[in-house]
Amino acid sequence: MDIGCYCISQSRFIFGKEPVKTFGVVDYDPVMKTDRMASAILDFGNGTSTFTCSTQMVPYQRVNIIGTEARIEIEVPVNAASDTQTRIWLHSKTGSEEMLFDAVNQYTLQGDLFSEAILNNKLVPVSLQDAVNNMKVIEAVFRSSDKGSWITL
Questions:
Q1: Whole-model pTM?
Q2: Phi then psi for 25, rounded to 5 degrees?
Q3: Cα(14)–Cα(28) distance, rounded to whole angstroms?
Q4: Cα–Cα distance between 64 and 71 in angstroms, integer?
Q5: How would residue 1 be classed by pLDDT, with cut points 50, 70 and 90?
Q6: 114 φ, ψ to 5°?
Q7: What is d(CA 66, CA 64) in angstroms, rounded to the nearest whole number?
Q8: 59 has a pLDDT exceeding 90
């Protein structure tokens, strides 16, 4: 239950809703007995999200959001280096555009926003219900892998 949570969270954010079913394949480390690689298909009814993530493979991160008119590609969407700019590309039928974002420490930003919410009695940036919903999908991916079949959420 490590980096796969980010793939699931990103998918739910992009679609703006919960998946209706999922199919997952999980590989476990023979020594540590923890998941070391997970692949899943999340079916949202009007589209799918697919991903593979691993803690023990060559480091590489990309998110591609593919639509009928364009594709968005995000370089290192999770735990980007705090000293390197983040790049996003928009590829469309008319060409490509690169957008650069200043280097930041994502974990510091998360901590600052959480602290600000507490100090100013505001809502936290991501709700507790969002975390619960994400966990439901994570558990469904693990169940799907165990059963070798689709799991309805």
A1: 0.89
A2: -130, 125
A3: 28
A4: 7
A5: low
A6: -65, -45
A7: 6
A8: no
pLDDT digits (tens, 9 = 90+) for 19-42: 999 999 999 989 988 889 999 999
Residue 123 structural domain: 4-152
Q: How many domains does the chain have?
A: 1
Question: Under a CB-based contact definition with an 8 Å cutoff, are residues 138 and 5 in contact?
Answer: yes
For residue 131, report the phi and psi dihedrals to the nearest 5 degrees: -65, -40
Q: How far apart are CA 49 and CA 13, in angstroms?
A: 11
What angle, 0 to 180 degrees and rounded to 10, lies between the N-to-C axes of helices 128-147 and 4-15? 120
| pLDDT averaged over every residue in the chain | 93
The CATH number assigned to the domain holding 132 equals 3.30.360.10
